[in-house]
Write a structure and sequence with these properties.
heterodimer, A: alpha+beta, nine-stranded mixed beta sheet, 13% strand, B: alpha+beta, 16 helices
Chain lengths: 491, 489
């Protein structure tokens, strides 16, 4: 079964080789036969409705690129066309009365949705095993995890159900599953994409990001949702106060122009990170091969040391859980969600919120503790101060380098059930977390396979709002260094 | 009465929550209009739907700046919003967006005029925050109405410097008055636009360290505030005198029984786990914005009172009464601009107009306070009609007593003062020949009193004037009577 790419489908639609209705039908078929449990729900009726509407509008050369193409939406992005549950029992049956900003933008760009992708509950997890709707399996090998928390966003893409998906990334939740499943995953610069309608986990860290098979596809999705739209007044009002005022950019076009630029690439010095950085040999070897390729292409490649990265996991697991403990306070069963009725108020709260999974509870407890009287200065305040140091170190490094190359994680996909110690699992996020702390754009690219045939990913982190550079490097890697099989054979 | 006890002194700090007169809520576009169907004025943001985010209402910021300027505060160029975390069904997000360590305004003050002296009460800070929704408890359960949730508030925190209940009530009145003048708040205590929490403690006279305080929550009437604090001070004294200790706790006030009662003890005290709100940027307010907002400021009560004292030579007790409500002061200004006589206008405004206001509304009469609910006197009698009445007095057509009768008539009829006077034949007699005749008559009839006066009893003069007035059926010009009678005696 071949995978779809957005470009492939867009061209087929324009050449009248296929209709949106037929694409939708194929999508539903694949969803029903999906062994990876990547899709939590799909509203067939609405999907066909949207497909028919798209076909009616047609696919002239002026038609928006994404018209008629179904995209997968992570279950923590609210839509009016399907329920949103964040893979949690506490939101079972929740129907949002509004659409997330990104959903409105994608609809404007012609994409079809009416689905929700599986994930770790409330985006808390890095394997995809914390969903209350069943774990997500890696389509490359069902004995392995897909990675998390945007597990379904990577798996549904790899499994060929969707040509492109949206995930969310707070500490690596787009990049890690992308690397584990062998697809591209981008975390945009903080403030580039509106968070209005993304169920908040770590407000100062969250960003919605696209996943796709090809760089052109990734750019196409990003183009639809990033920055201020040009005809802003005729559309809707962006209700995220942390948005940057940057304008929307045509990334697909920009890629072409940026193509042959020679760059200064910094390779993250792993020794400077002490014991935390024991990276799998195969991953390190593959990275070295990539470095040779980049050098041959004429880029200047040198080692960069950012020792403060060794504190990132500790900093993140204070800041993120503190913000999360308050972001999840609204889930009290009073106004929406699954309420566990009771005689008195306290029982109402404890029974209703008792529905959270163990990892969610763990993080809420951690966050509540770290913010409490007597501990605030030692934990939250200190973490914020160290965060600033880490960010400054990155900005300084990026003054003399166009991007920083590193692994995405120390290992490839783990086996299902192998992550038993939560704290140990947290350490897997060492390489992805810093980009969230610093608010920088970061892209995960498939660069090979290990001896078990599991995908290996590499990560590049760039300057604020310089997604174009990341995309153009990724494109050259994909065209001339390594291509996943799905990309070769895509429709 | 100011608080005075041989052994103890009291300290009170007030936290006033005032709703801002914006048309929309603080972080979303829902209307703040009072009286909508329950939960009709809501949206994903103020009902804390998953994924919703706050966007700051800049009109609210301008009003908060105005409040700070009106209360003589320093407006901070940088202030930060914080999350104040606690669980309650009428707090949708499970946290309130407020300001904690970096409020919008600091170090202000208010001067209150009380018992013939002026007292300065200092204000610690003013910060912006959103209101919670409303809960209604019934035997079958609790109903939650989120129309009020996320309404913009300013919280005005006084330094703990107030020394008694009367002073506290006077401070709250003055703050409310200033906010209403500035257009920041509508002063409607009945609708809950203005609410007050009082922190009360006592200590032995002369001791510097403050005693344990209790917090009396949500008192929404000046009269009840004063009574609640009076009761609480007395209660605390009783506790201490009996050898006990005051427990730090939250108390409510039962107006029917006139007692405070315990609501929550210290054990349940909240740790609000404040931290900076990550969904909002720090609020940057530059001097240009402060200047622009201030330039729209109306003449505040203290400034107006000073102007009246200077321009019309009015004593402080009178200017304080006139400026006690913006409606009354605006009415006075308009009246003076037509009549041209500040003193006469003042007498009538603090006299008959104020009396009519109190009588027109039972709450005002019961509360016995100056125009608590900001009723516009113009609704009872327009400045034009009253001005006409006053001009008749100035012309000498009627005297003050007759004018009072005409005033009452003006309240109920649509006729003008002139029409009423002529219709009822109330014009006073200024014809000197008639007065002369009347005086002669009186002097003859009251020969004994005349003799008494001529022998030195000055008090009898008033009696004789009264007799002349009676003779002329009360409609004579008293000044003329006085002059002529004096000459004849």
């Amino acid at each position: 079964m071949k995978s779809f790419t957005i470009a492939g489908l867009a061209n087929s639609l324009r050449q009248k080789k296929i209709s949106a209705h037929e694409i939708a039908k194929e999508t539903v078929d694949r969803y029903k036969n999906d062994p990876s449990n990547s899709v939590i729900r799909l509203n067939e009726e609405k999907l066909f409705e949207q497909a028919v509407a798209a076909d009616k509008l047609g696919y002239s050369n002026n038609a928006p690129w994404l018209r008629g193409i179904p995209l997968g939406i992570k279950d923590n992005i609210v839509t009016t066309d399907t329920q949103t549950t964040c893979a949690s029992k506490i939101l079972e049956g929740y129907q949002s009365t509004y659409n997330a900003d990104v959903v409105n933008r994608l609809a404007l760009a012609g994409a079809l949705m009416a689905n929700k992708l599986n994930m770790d509950e409330f985006a808390m997890g890095s394997t995809g095993e914390y969903s209350q709707f069943g774990a997500v399996l890696n389509p490359c090998n069902k004995d392995y995890v897909a990675g998390g928390s945007s597990a379904g966003s990577a798996a549904a893409l790899k499994a060929g159900i969707f040509a492109g998906t949206l995930g969310s990334d707070t500490g690596g939740s787009v990049r890690l599953p992308a690397a584990f499943c062998g697809v591209l995953g981008l975390k945009p610069t903080y403030g580039l994409v509106s968070r209005y309608g993304l169920v908040a986990f770590g407000s100062s860290l969250d960003q919605i990001g696209p996943l796709a098979h090809t760089v052109d596809d990734l750019a196409a999705i990003l183009e639809a949702v990033a920055g201020r739209p040009k005809d802003k007044d005729s559309f809707y009002w962006e209700q995220d106060s942390t948005l940057s005022p940057v304008q929307n950019q045509p990334y697909r076009q920009a890629l072409v122009t940026a193509a042959n630029k020679k760059l200064n690439i910094g390779v993250l010095d792993l020794e400077s990170l002490s014991k935390q950085s024991v990276v799998n040999d195969e991953i390190e070897n593959r990275q070295n091969e990539l470095i040779s390729f980049l050098t041959k292409k004429g880029h200047k490649v040198s080692k960069v040391a950012i020792p403060s990265i060794q504190y990132s996991v500790a900093v993140y697991y204070i800041i993120a859980v503190c913000e999360a403990s308050t972001n999840l306070a609204r889930f009290d069963g009073v106004r929406y969600g699954k309420r566990c009725s009771s005689g008195n108020l306290e029982e109402h709260y404890t029974k209703t919120r008792g529905q959270f999974g163990a990892e969610v509870k763990r993080r809420i407890l951690l966050g509540t503790f770290a913010l409490s009287a007597g501990y605030y200065d030692a934990y939250y305040k200190k973490a914020c101060q160290v965060r600033r140091i880490i960010k400054n170190d990155f900005i300084n490094t990026l003054n003399s380098h166009d991007l920083i190359l590193s692994p995405v994680s120390a290992t490839t996909a783990l086996r299902c059930g192998a992550s038993t110690d939560p704290l140990q699992t947290y350490l897997n996020d060492l390489f992805t977390i810093p980009a969230n702390l610093a608010g920088l754009p970061a892209l995960s690219i498939p660069v090979g396979r290990d001896k078990n045939s599991m995908p290996i990913g590499a990560q590049i982190v760039g300057r604020p709002f310089d997604e174009v550079t990341l995309l153009s490097v990724a494109q050259s890697i994909q065209t001339e260094f390594y291509k996943e099989a799905e990309v070769e054979n895509a429709i | 009465m100011p608080f005075n006890h041989p052994q103890f002194e009291a300290t009170i700090g007030l936290e006033i929550h005032a709703q801002l007169t914006t048309s929309k809520k603080l972080f979303c576009f829902c209307s703040t209009a009072y009286g909508a169907e329950p939960n009709a004025s809501t949206c994903p943001v103020c009902t804390a739907q998953p994924g919703a985010l706050p966007v700051l209402n800049q009109e609210a910021v301008d009003l908060a700046i105005l409040a700070g300027v009106a209360l003589n505060c320093k407006i901070n160029n940088t202030s930060v919003f914080s999350r104040k975390n606690y669980f309650y069904p009428d707090l949708p997000k499970g946290y309130q967006i407020s300001q904690f360590d970096k409020p919008l305004c600091s170090d202000g003050h208010v001067d209150i005029y009380l018992n013939d002296t002026t007292v300065r009460i200092n204000i610690e800070r003013i910060h912006m925050e959103e209101d919670a929704g409303q809960s209604q408890h019934h035997h079958y359960g609790t109903l939650i109405n989120l129309n009020r949730a996320s309404t913009p508030l300013v919280e005005i925190v006084s330094r703990p410097e107030i020394t008694g209940a009367q002073e506290a009530a006077a401070y709250m009145r003055e703050v409310k008055n200033i906010l209403v003048y500035a257009g920041v708040n509508d002063g409607n205590l009945q609708e809950g636009s203005l609410r007050c929490d009082a922190n009360v403690s006592i200590r032995p006279k002369g001791q510097v360290k403050l005693g344990t305080r209790t917090e009396i929550k949500n008192v929404n009437s000046f009269r009840f505030l004063e009574k609640a604090i009076d009761y609480e001070i007395a209660r605390q004294i009783q506790v201490v005198v009996a050898g006990g200790r005051v427990v730090q706790e939250t108390r409510g006030y039962d107006s029917a029984k006139n007692v405070t009662y315990s609501m929550r003890s210290k054990e349940d005290a909240h740790d609000y786990r404040y931290f900076p709100e990550p969904d909002l940027l720090p609020l940057l307010v530059d001097q240009a914005r402060i200047d622009k907002v201030s330039s729209n400021m109306v003449e505040l009560p203290s400034v107006r009172a000073a102007r009246y004292a200077k321009d019309y030579e009015l004593p402080q007790s009178i200017t304080a009464t006139i400026t006690s409500s913006r409606a009354l002061a605006d009415y006075y200004d308009k009246l003076v601009s037509i009549v041209g006589d500040g003193k006469l206008s003042a007498n009538w405004v603090v006299g008959q107009v104020l009396r009519a206001l109190k009588e027109s509304s039972p709450e005002n009469a019961a509360e016995n306070i100056e125009a608590e609910s900001a009723v516009d006197p113009g609704q009872l009698i327009s400045t034009e009609r009253l001005a006409e009445l006053l001009s008749l007095i100035k012309e000498g057509l009627i005297n003050n007593n007759i004018a009072k009768t005409v005033f009452d008539e003006l309240l109920t009829s649509t006729a003008s003062a002139k029409e009423i006077v002529s219709k009822k034949g109330l014009a006073q007699v200024s014809d000197t020949s008639l007065i002369d005749k009347a005086i002669d008559g009186v002097l003859m009839r009251c020969a004994d009193q005349v003799a008494e006066y001529r022998s030195g009893k000055d008090k009898v003069f008033g009696f004789l004037v009264g007799q002349v007035m009676r003779e002329l059926k009360g409609k004579a010009n008293p000044t003329i009577i006085n002059d002529m009678l004096k000459k004849k005696l």
